[in-house]
Design goal:
alpha/beta, 6-stranded mixed sheet, single chain, two-stranded antiparallel sheet, Rossmann fold
């Protein structure tokens, strides 16, 4: 009988608000943290607001904990038109490796406030609730980190 792996991948989660810091950003971010901590193989700790260069330095100082930055950008162009009070967001999640600070991956999630239009690329899934956007970002982070961990463990075993 195979024993379950009880070690958790440790993540430090930072955020970078948009210039306007929309209310939806806080809801999405809290859902990211909540959903990540529901995974049995992930331990996520909030470390506050960090810019990319600060996140890289923090990752370099870590020995085994990945640093994640969840960055919010307001989509000001919708269907080719400039929208001044847009509530639509692009959510970038970047994961930085411990010791090196190298970015291991970057993913995007598009959040479209209900009733608005977006300029997201064709074929891209758009989330229409902040909760769904948070869950999507959390799943992208988890899947990406686990893939990086698998790749690292396989490269170590190769002769």
């Amino acid at each position: 009988m195979e024993q379950p792996n009880t070690s958790k991948v440790k993540l430090l989660i930072a955020r970078q608000h948009s210039k306007k810091h929309l209310a939806g950003e806080d809801v999405i971010y809290s859902n990211v943290i909540q959903h990540l901590n529901q995974f049995a193989d992930i331990s996520a700790t909030v470390i506050g607001d960090l810019k990319t260069d600060q996140a890289v330095k923090r990752a370099q100082a870590e020995t085994e904990t990945f640093v994640v930055v969840v960055q919010f950008e307001i989509e000001v162009f919708q269907n080719g038109k400039l929208v001044f009070n847009s509530q639509n967001l692009t959510i970038n999640s970047s994961v930085y490796a411990p010791k090196t600070g190298d970015r291991k991956f970057k993913e995007k999630t598009y959040y479209q406030a209900l009733g608005s239009r977006t300029s997201a690329p064709v074929g891209v899934t758009i989330k229409i609730t902040p909760e769904a956007a948070g869950i999507s970002v959390a799943e992208q982070i988890r899947n990406g980190v686990l893939l990086v961990m698998r790749e690292q463990s396989q490269s170590i075993k190769l002769p």
